[in-house]
């Protein structure tokens, strides 16, 4: 069992003012090396190349999600305590598993997660569960609370935990994870779009038989949250310049893989901590994974600037010194003609494998529950005065307008040099050809 | 000559909303590798171990200081333009050197500057000047503006530039550097203390024959700034827990030096980029220095956890996993008896050279001009209605109360284990001895 | 001609930090009695009965709208100055008429405007023009600038001024009036919904041949503004409780009219300043109108509590002591049966003429230009990279979802007593009948 | 006994986000006419003539002070609950009297309190007690809780309540009243000076045997509060322009008194609600007092503009149209020569009784407990780790610098016309004489 601390400890947090730590268990979890590692993993990765303020890390987000879970479950404890089993109300005994799951939900995130998972075939959610249930300090702390506690927490993150209220607080379309990261990303980027009325949302949240609902009086606050999220995706997370950095990162890591395949000496290319990542046919162990962080990758890239492979050293230098690839929009009509663009880039002396990329930014801002979907969404339900439920987009024209409609931004990336236009431009004719294929920031395939 | 951009570019900044870039020169400077390196150097170093939000870097601070300089000199251009030489007003031709000096004032900062400079005998101000005047991209951009421009900018930072208005805007007791970092540190830590009324201060700033003065109507805003600064030092910068991390960092880097002296193989201990730092009797070149950043040190520390030296691996692990040394206050009376404490720590099995430290946090929050001081301060002058000047503390009781009075917090640091108090504590008697020397967080020497 | 002030004056403003006054003309206008009267007219009237913080007045809003106009036109002066006539750019000579029209656009607003205009058949826009062109201090100040200046300013407010850029800055679907009041109302109510990214909107505003457009890069900020406005209407301006106060106000003023018609002595009922308002067949003169303010009405209501007419004294007391009528939603289906409700209210002893009301809150959040509409809207145009225009809802699914769709909240109001449910309730059976007609806050007509 | 509400009600508040109302008693008190009257009494009176945003009323401040009291006592209930009598901890049974006293502490405030009390010999604190214990709705609500409850609440406000913890939470040098008004005034004026770290202060507050102390870890937050308060007095509350309005108000009300003494017809001068105020030798009853509000005075002043007394109509017009008297500083040396100034004002045709004034703004920002003082202050005590107490200024140099040192700003007020300097100035010689007595905004007596 966990003991309450004699006096709560607080962490100063710029978003929630204070993170209140009231349980020895929570304090012990924060003090594990695995949790402290989150200080070395940035929340938004390459986005900070565009929004320079956004250098916050996953440690802050994790304690923030915990704090929201703590506040919501405290509120549930006070106002919606279950009286009889099956009354659809809140069981206070679920508080600890909820706040711990909120705290640990991102513990498996690694450096530049998106790029990393794509290239190295890992998955941060699986890794989170592995860290919770594997041979780690976190696991030992959780076991000291109760032997089955690691599995309970892991099942919340896997969404297999039986109590849907708990699961939905941690992962649904309006959960503590999203609420914290939207507010936090808005604060650190300086973009006002991500702000919404979290106090009101938390006050209108209600446990119910199917999970979590929202009192009808909170509808507009929920609408505002959905719209904020939608705006943050379009304005911040999809930003073409940070994606112009991301594709460089992808290509330079891909180049290292390729060089190793070609027989370059691993010990020249990657130090001992990074080596397991690039080892062929090797699944990273939890211990290996936990040594990785942003610093390790950035340091390797710093070093690769000196490596005697022209492509690797050039891409590394572009990444470190923020020379993003430029981009233009493509669409279903123009996508088939992309080899036309790649050819011109090649004519200008760049290997298109490493110097061009197609990158699609995609988000489905909101959807209702679609039982036949591959990953059905938990829809947001509003609760009327008489207790009946209505799905959000039923009542909100705003949300209906974006429901089930994916936001999609497809782009073709290429070196900035392709836009050169100077008198001493060696490839002046090629560059001119290239520019002739672009209109209003969009690829217009030529005739061939 | 610099050309104005056809349309200004802006960077979203959480403190100043937007950083406005209106000159090609400024844009080119920001795009140099040397300036981009500032993204990889945190502003507050170990402070983020206590205030988890405070992970902002020197890139943001540098463009912030630039933006303040731009706004102030725009205001001077509009309202205080010199009419005849020597009228003590503002010469608009000084704007460019001012905003560029503001932008570049920190470009020589390295990772964990304070610790680093102390251990490796470098100096970030000298390094800033070396980067501006040496063989760098920044230098080439500055030269393209005018051949003597690098030297002019460097002399502003060296405070030898003839125009005192420019010098004082960049470095004085109320300059763009301090104004930006106080606001920025307050924003990122979440501590409200650092806030002050920057709009009012900027509106009451005036160029004058002796440099920069402040209209009497701004006195209370200036007072508030001084008090905010004072509070930030005591509450944030002096925080004993972050200093408990700093001393570990110092000791672990010191241990590496020592191991190399003892003949350990450099290539086992430090990679190629870090090697020059530890080379005996070697002055770092600008090029070597510019490869250093936070990531490099953090990655080395990550690796040292596996190094077969018990002290180095232990200290590295404590640092990476945030296990700060604890501390107690000492003072002039008790300082001479510190060996008493060191002895007990040694009795508990810790080498006091690496497991204890005395650390003094010191700041002189404000002083008037003292011609005989080693580093005389530029005092803050208020300008009365009839144009006469009065030194700030003459009129402000608040400021008078802290003028010339150093804030000092002297502490003795030791491993947390010394406070153990459990039944299975191997050194239970030693730890008890240790605790008997502490009262109210302060060292009380015993009788010997 | 107006002279620039030797040094700008500033007003501290909680929304825009400072209002910068740089012209003698603007200062003189602010100092007229007609403009100072705006301090005595609240911006949101009865809304403060629900959002207690929202007691701000039209003085603050007017100088705020001025400040936005000043900033935008300064920006236009700097970046979009017309070179040749008809190039669709900005003529700096239009700045003065723009900022003065912004300052004065609300000068004809009276106490509780909405209610007042409805009952007494006045119109604040006509009144604004009358004050600008009539025998007033404002008119004299404007004339001193140039003899035709009053008419120019008035024609901007009447939207007949030839320059559409000026007209649209002052009144369109995204003008300085709306931008200021949304931000200001959000600040004072404490509702976050009204916030949007005004800095970004102002940076993407562009003068063009048809008036004012917005660079495509600002689309999401404009979307956010439209959504914020939509939310403020639904959440704040339509609030049923403040409308429950408004209908009391309407009825009590109507009762005074009725009593006068019935022959009550005017000098007992209304003091000399208020008398002209209630005089039969009398059009208020500008001079009479300008003596009216919130205080006058509130003081009269305070006094009417003692008046020997039961209905007037009761309604006055309800208004002053905040005893709002309650309400239920009605709709097209149920509206025809409202006499059913009125009858029950009558059965409970209340005169339905004074103790019930139907009140429709209506807003059309956005519409495109519809040439055949009664009041065609100026649509919001986005400007693409090649200079072509697209109407906002063409590109924004969010805005398309609310375009041309009126927000409407129809309610029936009645005394709170109708919901009584106590044992000592005299009208217990009547009240029960009444409640049986309500379900989920909505009127469900019974069978008759 | 009070019942808890089934679900708390909240009021949206721009300072504290939400005011949480959890008790039927508190809700009933807010709904009394006497409490609702506070909506019609502005918090800062004439200050809004300078800081136009600062139009907030005492209703908002009162519910704000209540909310702080609620949060602090909730915290005390959770962490510092008394175990045995006399242990110096907190008795939860004191919560209700504390939050109710906080809610009602200003209920006796009237329009323009400072001026009013001075002229009409009333006292808002006595009036508050009279309203609580007299024949009022508030009294009836309090009695329904328990018959002795009105007296208990009144005694807290009178500071005679036996429990010093309760008394000091409501009135001391750091109480809920001051904390709320500083934050609120800062928010509404837009002046940042009033901000301080209320969250931290509330967390370090501790009940103790002598009342309320502050944990040493909160010292800097308390310092910051003291300094903020000091700054708000100097920058906002002492503002010479609002005092230039206040002296006009005083003089015009004084003129009405004088005219009545001279035999003018009361019914021509003052309406029925205002009449009791001006009745000779009449003590206002609670019922008469409760009819007074800002509107009544402002309406009377509006009307007095037409009154056939030149002085009254002129002063009324100056007040309503914001034509403040100008002022210069005087001091102990120059004060005796003020008749010199008055004579020149008289020479210019103004009756010095009504057109000049001496006005001293005075505040003692902090003091320790001085048993022999007329009104001894409750000093602020810091609590060390071992439980011992230290008075704040003992440890804080900042606070020591202002302890016991009154802030004083003595000024002489006169009509703006005295500074006229134009060619068509009738009194040009007199005005020149007047100006010759002023230097640097200060009175320099001439030789006579």
TrEMBL record, chains A, B, C, D:
Record InterPro entries: dGTPase-like, HD/PDEase_dom, HD_assoc_2, HD_domain
Record carries keyword Hydrolase: yes
Record-level Gene Ontology MF annotations: dGTPase activity
Pfam families in UniProt: HD, HD_assoc_2
Superkingdom per UniProt: Bacteria
Protein name: HD superfamily phosphohydrolase
Keywords associated with the record: Hydrolase
SMART domains: HDc
Domain HD/PDEase: start-end pairs: 54-191
Organism for this UniProt entry: Fructobacillus pseudoficulneus
GO process annotations (BP): dGTP catabolic process
UniProt KW Oxidoreductase keyword: no
